[in-house]
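Hi R.,

Here's the chain you asked about this morning:
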Amino acid sequence: MQPCPTCGGMGIDMNGYCTQCRTYRGVPQAPQPPVSGTPYSGDPYSGAPYAGYQASGPSFPDQQVSGPGYPGQTSGPGYPGQVSGPPAFPPTTYGGQYGASPTPPRKNRFMVPLIALSGVVVVLVIAIVAVVALRKDDPKTSADPGKSAGSTSGASTPAESKIDKCLVGTWQTSTFTQTAAMAGVEGGVSISLTKNGSTLKFTPDGKLTETYQDSVYSGSPTIQGQKVPITITVNATVNSDIQTASGSIVYSNVKTSGNTLTTAPSIGYSETEPFEADDNPAKYTCNGDSLTFSGTQIQATAKRTSSG
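And here is the predicted structure, written out as tokens:
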């Protein structure tokens, strides 16, 4: 304890005043031992400096402790001139090296690819409209109905019919297979008709109505080494105007109604989407009661069920 700077007295009462001249010197505090680490051997540092005393020189940082702190530690505003430094140890943080929450589990790694795949499969099913809308192939590699025995083409179309007379009537799709490449799917996506092929009705005035009633298509693409069975069920109707020329069917004014249901039971996936028709031209060969469609991705056949 140092003498009073005013009168030199050594006594301090319980309220912190000099017992001789009543100068305020601060409430005396008993020193407390450090909680951990090397004991502090110097004089206790008072949290309340003498009145008018300006702090100078290096200060001792407050220690982070779990019990009572050093005498200079207070919970409210400090006395004038109180000196404090940065904590001796870094504060506890959440999400850092300690106390971090565990990483959440990954989603099923097959789910995201399958969702993307289902969209492609739906597009493939859409391509079935009007007996498979094939992309226009090179005429050199396409069958020419006009050169097939018993077949007909636009050149032989009677004046009273706007389309190839061979097409007029009702047809039932017998087989259908389509394959398309897709990133992340080994061997691409391939679907085939498994039940209830669509029914097509062509009229002489160039109208086409195609009906899907519980038509089922299926495939089993390999995604990341695992086969994922997929089923597409179509219930829809397509109405359009058509023209035929040089072994191709051209569609216009296409109107659709209905939907497609794509399911993958092995991963619990099921999605219903509106049916949308593809109006791209289609290559065909009509011969009597047989109708064939072929191309680089599609193979399909249909049988005539009625000529009217």
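One quick note: Residues 54 and 81 are 6 Å apart (CA to CA).

Cheers,
M.
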